[in-house]
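Standup notes
- DV: blocked on the single-chain target, sequence here:
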Amino acid sequence: MAKKHYYDVIVIGGGISGTALLYTLAKYTDIKNIALFEKYNELATLNSNAKGNSQTLHCGDIETNYTLEKAIKTNRTATMVENYGKLYGYDDKYMFKIPKMAIGVGDEEVKFIKARYKEFKKDFPYMKLWSRKDLETIEPALLEGRDKDVDVVAMGTNERYSAVDFGEIAKSFARNAKKENDEIDVHFNKEVDSIKKKGDKYIVTVGSEKYFADYVVVNAGAHSLLLAHQMGHGLDYSCLPIGGSFYYSKINKLKTKVYTIQNPKLPFAAIHGDPDLVHDNTIRFGPTAIALPKLERYHHAHFMDFLESLSPTPAVIEVFYKLMGDKDIRDYAVKNFLYEVPGVRRKLFAKEVQKIVPSLTKDDIVFAEGVGGLRPQVIDKKNKELLLGEAKIDTGDGIVFNMTPSPGATSCLGNAYEDAELICKYLGAKLKTKKFNRELVS
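- DV (later): unblocked, structure below
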């Protein structure tokens, strides 16, 4: 069979976002001629891999930095992932009902959790408010070694699919897409060097080869903004890559995903403890958060690519200055840098772990080498602010660039549907909205 070099749609990036779009186009549109390009030799090798994320399906119910509005929106996309898993029988294979909770310790945090529970219970009716007495049965490790005079409450549930191996889900998206449409091509070891528009077609260059498409979607993590900048798009945005590391516990004490309360001043996730899906009887604590001058955490990366995507300007420097001018953020940045430094990191991070499991010491944890990912946090240079959550550059001209930090994996099908709408409108193709809603939304 002759090698194809023209496609209606080319998707760049074989993580959870790219494969979710591939699946959505294959099953819920009438577009047949589609390709996905992945730079490595298999799918989901970076942030979608189970080692590169928290393995959490973020529903917004225990993420205390989410507003109710954001939680409702995120829950809708989380439900899509749950329904997809149930549609193909992946429950208890790639997704699991591990109990989860947000814990409050001390009078101020207890008051916060109780108020949040009251605000959220109408839209999240399955959530329970657990007292200290309840937690003695549900998760006793939270109380071992904790001062008995300190009040503790949690809002949580054991009714939702809370833990997901997003790497395996990504691979399943590609498999099921091929079952729906055998004309789909998935290309491995194809790193995109450039994208250019000529006439009404896009030219995607990979080494010495050129591929052509009517529409291109770039889901390439931190590289998405780099490719956008090279085409003259998204110049008002900069990419600040934030690396996250984890620690393993040598003692298997937790059976629950336990999240702590987010400081509203801090732009990154608060520490949580999670039973690891790919290592039996292992608990992970984290993540840390540290800015890194690279676009991939554990792969070879070019510093100049980082510099080009950061695109340092006076506006970017002003954003850094504003962030570091806040003592809470400054202290947080210093602590998280030290959490990466051998010799001192275990002792320092043990204090964070003890917020969840008071009885654990530095001798009970170990730095998880090679575990963790890198998230492309976006700086809006025009408004001089750090954006949290997904960012999309829709040119309106047949190409879209997506940057999807947390909860990007949770939102993969919701984001894919949005892109499918754009693609179908541009190409005059049919989007099977009723089928999508019936199978994944209802």
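- Follow-up: The chain has a mean pLDDT of 94.
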